[in-house]
Amino acid sequence: MNDLRSLTRPESVAVIGASKTPGKIGYAVIENIKSSGFKGEIYPINPKEQEIAGYKAYPTVRDVGKPIDVAVLCVPAAAVLPVAEDCGQAGVKHLIVITAGFKEVGKEGRELENKLVETARRYGMRIVGPNCLGVMDTHTPFNATFAKNFALKGNIAFISQSGALCVAILDWSLKRGLGFSQFISIGNKADLNEADFIENAAEDPNTKVICLYLEDVVNGPRFIEAAKKATKKVPVIVLKAGVSAAGAKAASSHTGALAGSNAAYDAAFRHAGVLRASTMTELFDLAIAFTTQPIPKGRKVVIVTNSGGPGIVTSDAVELSGLEMSRFTPETLAELKEKLPPTANIHNPVDVVGDAHHDRYKIALDTVVKDPNVDAVTVLLSPTAVLDIQKAAEVTVEASKANPDKAFVASFIGGAAVEAGVNYLNANGIPTYPFPEPAVATLRGMVRFGELRRALEDGDEWVFTDVDREQVKSIFEKVKKDGRNLLLGPEAASVAEAYKIPAAPSRLATTADEAQKFAEDMGYPVVLKIASPDIMHKTDVGGVKVGLKSAEEVRAAFESIMENSRKAVKDARIYGVEVQKMMPKGDELIIGMVKDPTFGPMIAFGSGGILVNLLKDAAFRLASGITKKEIMEMISETKAYTILKGFRGQEPDDIPALAEAIARVAQLCRDFPEIVELDINPVFAYPKGLSALDVKVKLAM
Ligand code: COA
């Protein structure tokens, strides 16, 4: 891990390009550091000035002659390299390069950026940016940015790939009264990237939640490692903008076509325990809730309301989001019945009804929150003339404080009448929303994070020791020697066999005699298919014959397949005819792999057969680190699972065998990074066992 403490909590900072001219970035940065209350040493660097912002100025950073933790560069791009060299010689630890004009402007900028990284590496310096707003830590306090304001002190670390978003969020947060622990603009990420700042924020005692705005991830495995470690301590929420995974999209396989542009990020975030927000609102709703409320232990939600309509709307939102409405114990019901008027609804949603004063809220909340079937509480309020809204807010806060293991959210619906109550709730750590749906969505996110975090504790990568790597290696070598990158059917079946992935027996026959012998060895009926890397659509050229039940049929099929294929595709490389045992029909599934440029091999499972791309029923996980639990989860996410479990009285399929086959495919893809695509479609699932019928393996050229 990189130690970035001296970056966010430095003892000394030099501002290179510090200026006396208001309106310049070098002016804003030094003024911000000064006014943030930074207690360390401040050294303005400017060859023309003796003094800036009340501090002695130095012509170069080398003239300071004292240790410098951080240098903030506000000089034009052309001056950055010599300045970085000076910093290296002066023993500076970290550079914050605000200057723009690097890789974001094209080839020349990219070269300049590479040289900057080279210089920094030579001296062991780390770089934030270039092309960034800078870095804030409110608890140090340290504001090395050119933002208009300093963030309020708080517990949210915000790490953003967009500087513009940083300043906008900052301004909004001041109005909202929302505080941050760290505020980091990562710019071009030439050196330090999101993973470094996740690690640093997770180690920061003032950070309770880490929020990121990302357009891409620089190093997938490192991101996962950093995020996985961080999420054990604090929630990590990412808003990932922009579609991605060009590699997956370009893939020619069925699996590639199934993987949407977001599948890899979804799989990676899930694997690392990272919560994905889909909007800015959601990102900050969750961040606020995580800093003020506990993570619910389960999915059970209670609603307390003084009006029916909002209660129903909220119940719907709970059910639709996958949360559950709490069902009370008889004791809770008895207590509510005794203490609330007969007009009240004592079942969830608990309705204290329109004529309620705050005391009924108190009774309802104090009673339901104790129920073991309640993990989270949603308090709804519609402003009536008889209700003291401030007092209702107060009893809500009291109930929340008295039950710190249950998450509270509220929606006091209205305008001016509820404003003071809403402010009171927010100020006292109850996340409050103008309408109920986002309140439920926030709870859903919190519950999901709890589930993701628990899943991280569930087991290690599922690994098998009974696989035959050497066999696979020798097949791949032979294929490459042949100048091919697609395996023939029998080769792919041997690869599957080496990893104990149950595949239908398959042999390559070069003569009719051989075909007959293989068919007899396997037992009839068999299927014959042309084995040629140049014939993609075998059926179309008359290159497939199914249901062959005798030696005569096999011999005739062999001859006709060879003839048809030669005629249909001139100069096709024909290796012979594949003889495959014809398997009984089972439920059709697909197991596949597609490679993501950032996160590596992704395993897919779903409904297979010829309708695969129409059904689009697939779940994805990263092959790296895949656990048994993840595999079971991915199976159960698909529609195919309904069939596997035994649809309409049918016998269930062998789900354990299927899960094992998926794990073995994942291991094969991890062990052989040269596999760029893999499709097993269909896999027939049976009540006992399964059979891979068509295994396609494509290697990197
Ligand atoms: N050492 C020390 N000071 C130097 C220097 C050096 N080698 N070279 C120049 N300076 C001084 C200048 O004299 C000037 O000080 P002055 O105001 O006293 O004259 C100061 O550094 C700035 O140089 P200047 O040439 O005036 O540049 P500028 O302020 O117009 O622009 C940047 C500099 C960095 C702001 C500009 O190049 C830039 O990149 N702007 C975009 C920043 C941005 O958008 N970043 C991304 C945000 S998300």
Automatic annotation (TrEMBL):
ATP-grasp domain span: 493-529
Keyword Metal-binding on entry: no
Gene Ontology MF terms: acetate-CoA ligase (ADP-forming) activity; ATP binding; metal ion binding
Record PROSITE patterns: ATP_GRASP (PS50975)
UniProt key word Transferase: no
Domain of life of the organism encoding this protein: Bacteria
Coiled coil regions in record: none
Pfam families: ATP-grasp_5, CoA_binding_2, Ligase_CoA_2, Succ_CoA_lig
Keywords: ATP-binding, Ligase, Nucleotide-binding
Annotated InterPro entries: AcCoA-synth-alpha, Acyl-CoA_Synth/Transferase, ATP-grasp, ATP_grasp_subdomain_1, CoA-bd, Ligase_CoA_dom, NAD(P)-bd_dom_sf, Succ_CoA_lig_flav_dom
Annotated family: In the N-terminal section; belongs to the acetate CoA ligase alpha subunit family.
Protein name: Acetate--CoA ligase family protein
